User: Fold dTDP-4-dehydrorhamnose 3,5-epimerase family protein from Actinokineospora guangxiensis.
Amino acid sequence: MKARELGLGGAWAFTPETHRDDRGLFVSPFEESEFSAAVGRSLFPVAQVSTSVSGQGVARGVHYARTKPGCAKYVHCATGRVLDFVIDLRVGSPTYGQWDSVELAEMQAVYLPAGLGHAFVALEPDSTVCYLLSRGYIPADELAVSLLDPELGLPIPDGAVLSARDRAAPTLAEAKANDLLPHYP
Assistant:
């Protein structure tokens, strides 16, 4: 597995080795030994596994969990292809408001520690994204910042399909003014 640290504190991208033959393929999108060798510690205890399937042009995010305790995520693309974004929402962080992106396909993954926001745009039909989460879903703790916020400047294509929740999400400045963002330690 290849690991690459992203430009935001604690976020990583992972590309597993894919084994192909005439029957198809075999791949392990997560390997604890490879993760801990790259990141320097074990992955969080997994509290929930979730999957989303999105049509081409669907955009999801910027999603994050209220802290404390927050929610760390290990996210991989099982099928299709997505442009994945990691956004630093931690007030006081040296990279606050900045983002990094990686195109995920064929089981490639990203790791986001608690406090970072996550978003993606599906680049192919039926793009399937799977999440290992450090805590279960608690609706009151699940928050969003607008994907279309000009301050963030995410390259979201015109005509991207967003949920009503994501269309109504506050800007980064509004979320900060209402003390909805995580704080850097």
Observations:
- The CA atoms of residues 11 and 112 lie 5 Å apart.
- The chain is about 10% helix and 40% strand.
- Helices lie at 32-39, 164-167, 172-177.
- The chain has one domain: 2-177.
